[in-house]
Amino acid sequence: MQNTLSLSSATYLQSSATYKTIISCIQRLQEYGKTKLWLKCAWTYFGERAKENFCRIMAITNFASNIAKF
Question: Quick check: 24 pLDDT over 50?
Answer without folding.
Answer: yes
